[in-house]
């Protein structure tokens, strides 16, 4: 099935790259757990030589995810961080990146503690104001990197406005689209050059595999990333590729339930006497609610809320029974985490304070359970405060 925009999202998710196996007619894409391939002669093969370079199961996944994001190609990696590392590896010593100042904690850790030692330069700005991005771009700037919504404060960047700046200043725009998935947000259609996902999250959707993907708007980026797959080897295994292909088939259905439950939970939390601020773009009092409605087709299931203190957060989290305390997000189950001691611990107290992350903040990835059970669990957890 070709990547035609005339096919609906759910149809592409189920069929593009997931065509029946030509050898057996198997409806499910086979797992090819092979390291190498027999060649008929010198330079004569069936398109595959060695699985670090390419693998049929990975090819199918990359075709599928490129179709969902509307890109020319996709490249799958062993984790979301490996995918981000590959993107940054396309730069050279002396190049500069402008980054959002409110990113998943592992991203600035990679940038500041690994890539900076190799000669790359990074500036962090509040990308909710596109003007900050424009002012931060230098002569040696090659890339702008944003999350929208951000992790965990759910701040949005105006992708159309920032992409216009990037085109004018001749720099690449990279968007981490993990929180929204391609079902609710299409950064390439808004002018981005590269989209990155942790496939571990909503794309897989079942909390049973690690992975990352980069979807490219331009063939030259796809070619460079394919070279990095070959040269570095941080590729996604055939089994992990199969898990994502399995998960993606239900992405449209899952995201609809995630979104519906997310809106209900956010409304519940916003009215709860034990909860302070609630960060969710679907709430009308979110400062970027209008932008969310403009560039997203749903609000998703990621919510952050304030309990008031580390003590309060711990009391609540220990009482939960349906919501599972743990790192990660995007699974069918409701996952809840404490950013200050989990995802953003590496920033340190000063770093967290600078961007507004408090010890009392809790982040919830609302699952697809019966929403009344989620609400009852949160209510009895909050009653401990």
Summarize the structure.
By secondary structure, this protein is α/β, with parallel strands linked by helices. The protein has helices at 9-15, 56-69, 80-88, 106-115, 130-136, 159-169, 181-184, 219-232, 238-248, 251-270, 289-295, 310-319, 348-355, 371-382, and strands spanning 73-77, 96-100, 121-125, 141-147, 172-176, 194-198, 212-216, 278-279, 302-306, 324-325, 335-337, 361-365. The chain has two domains: 9-248, Aspartate Aminotransferase, domain 2 (3-Layer(aba) Sandwich); 251-382, Aspartate Aminotransferase, domain 1 (Alpha-Beta Complex), CATH 3.90.1150.
Overall description:
This protein is of the alpha/beta class and 385 residues long. Helices cover 37% and strands 14% of the residues. The chain contains 14 helices and twelve strands. The protein has helices spanning 9-15, 56-69, 80-88, 106-115, 130-136, 159-169, 181-184, 219-232, 238-248, 251-270, 289-295, 310-319, 348-355, 371-382, and strands at 73-77, 96-100, 121-125, 141-147, 172-176, 194-198, 212-216, 278-279, 302-306, 324-325, 335-337, 361-365. The strands form two sheets. It has a seven-stranded mixed sheet, sandwiched between helices. α3 (80-88) packs across α4, α5 (130-136) runs parallel beside α6 and α12 crosses α14 (371-382). It is globular, with a radius of gyration of 21 Å. The mean pLDDT is 96.
């Amino acid at each position: 099935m070709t990547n035609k925009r005339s096919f609906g999202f759910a149809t592409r998710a189920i069929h593009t790259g997931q065509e029946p196996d030509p050898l057996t007619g198997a409806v499910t894409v086979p797992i090819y757990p092979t390291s190498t391939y027999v060649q008929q002669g010198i330079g004569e093969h069936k398109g595959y030589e060695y699985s670090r370079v390419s693998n049929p199961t990975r090819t199918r996944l990359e075709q599928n995810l490129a179709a969902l994001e509307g890109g020319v190609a996709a490249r799958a990696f062993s984790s979301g961080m490996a995918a981000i590392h590959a993107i940054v590896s396309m730069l050279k010593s002396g190049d500069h990146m402008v980054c959002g100042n409110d990113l998943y904690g592992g991203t600035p850790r990679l940038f500041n503690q690994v890539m900076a030692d190799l000669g790359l330069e990074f500036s962090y700005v509040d990308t909710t104001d596109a003007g900050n991005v424009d002012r931060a771009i230098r002569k040696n700037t090659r890339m702008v990197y944003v999350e929208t919504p951000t992790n965990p404060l759910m701040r949005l960047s105006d992708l159309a406005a920032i992409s216009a700046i990037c085109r004018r200043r001749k720099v690449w725009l990279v968007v981490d689209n993990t929180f929204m998935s391609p079902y609710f947000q299409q950064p390439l259609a808004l002018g981005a050059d590269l989209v990155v996902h942790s496939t571990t999250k909503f794309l897989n959707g079942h909390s049973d595999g690690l992975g990352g993907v980069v979807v490219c708007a331009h063939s030259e980026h796809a070619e460079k990333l394919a070279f990095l797959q070959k040269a570095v080897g941080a590729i996604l295994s055939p089994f992990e590729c199969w898990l994502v292909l399995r998960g993606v088939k239900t992405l449209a259905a899952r995201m609809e339930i995630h979104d519906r439950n997310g809106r209900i939970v956010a409304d519940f939390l916003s009215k709860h006497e034990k909860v302070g601020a609630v960060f969710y773009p679907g709430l009308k009092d979110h400062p970027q609610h209008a932008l969310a409605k403009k560039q997203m087709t749903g609000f998703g299931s990621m919510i952050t809320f304030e309990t008031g203190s580390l003590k309060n957060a711990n009391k609540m989290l220990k009482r939960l029974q349906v919501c599972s305390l743990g790192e990660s997000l995007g699974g069918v189950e409701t996952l809840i985490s404490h950013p200050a001691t989990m995802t953003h611990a590496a920033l340190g107290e000063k770093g967290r304070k600078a961007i507004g992350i408090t010890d009392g903040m809790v982040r919830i990835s609302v699952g697809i359970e019966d929403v009344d059970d989620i609400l009852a669990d949160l209510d009895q957890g909050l009653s401990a405060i």
